[in-house]
Fold each of these.
Amino acid sequence: MSRAGMWGLAALVAAFALSGCASKGRLAPVDDHSMGGARGSARVLPGAENAGKPGYYTVKPGDTLIRIGMDNGQSWRDIIRWNKLDNPNLIETGQVLRVAPPAPEVVVVRPATSPITASAATPAASAPAAPAALPPPSAAEEAISFQWPARGNLISGFDESKNKGLDIGGKAGDPVSAAADGRVVYAGAGLRGYGNLIILKHNNTYLTAYAHNQTLLVKEDQTIKRGQKIAEMGNSDADQVKLHFEIRRQGKPVDPAKYLQGN
């Protein structure tokens, strides 16, 4: 190789070395999720100003709107509507959601005392509709009558920490019936651990849940009568054919055996 060629090769090697040093020292871009794009400031999540207030819920890791609705005694569709969620699949840990219906709007009207004051009167003011905590159940709501949702042997009883309902055995295809009159607020397989699930809302106090079904026979928003067949028993997301049945009082699981009457 000529002397000129050797000098050219050396220059090329030096250029590659300098390029490598520069790339090693470059920081990767940082996603800025802060409000207004200000570097270093914490991002404020939707509804954060309502954290801890009655009628609101702070989203935890692993939550879904279906789970939040069931745990708060509400329809997941109502939660979407109350919070004006554009995409119900995008909720964030730490986000605060309204989980109780808005209080009725209160309008305050100041009466006019004369034509002069009437023309200059302050316009009627309306108080903002804030969500209210769930009221205590009425006597009529507490008096609701539940029947057994399926015929079969009791496999597992209620345990507040381990089993939030009753597990009733049976054969695939056995009928699953509504425990009381109500409205379907969920029918699908979107809640992990429950398989094909139906949730009925009976009033402002009680929900019932019917899990692990083989077939669902009702749709959301459908009105259901006590004893109506709503599903067929199965083993979806379960280790055997069974019906997992829950009663929720204002979102909290209670022992169904204390509420159920004969078919």
Note: The radius of gyration is 29 Å.
Amino acid sequence: MKRRAAFAAIAGSAAACAAETRDPAPFFSGTTLKGEKFSKDSLRGKVVLLQFWATWCGYCKRDEPVVDTVVRDFSAQGLVVLGVNVGESKETVRQYLAKYPRACKIVLTEDTNLTSLVSARAFPLYILLDREGGVAGIQKGSGGEEMLRQFLKLVQLER
């Protein structure tokens, strides 16, 4: 319970720039749109980038090519990107993805407890977890490719 509150407080209070915390993330789990199950435990040893987004968010849409590039550039180094759609129906998200496919794994609010752990009020919201499951950084808002690459350097991922 204490970790959940810390995680929510961290995400809710992060400044517009990346903030490094290294607090342990609370337990989370879910299933991607393609049916892949995941949890904090199953992702241990991987770097996890959580992107909280919505189909109506222009800044999220602008970041999609950057996020897709990062997926391609760093997945071989152990990066997993979970695009957590917040509050939209499966049909809305599927229709959106039919027009605008994403390289990251897509997760819906109904299929994870992540949205109950994080108060995402502005989009996109990025949370970076290190290989041990600690919160390596939080970024509120779109920062473009340079920001995302700098963000990943917090966990020694760079190209």
Note: Residues 58-74 form the longest helix (17 residues).
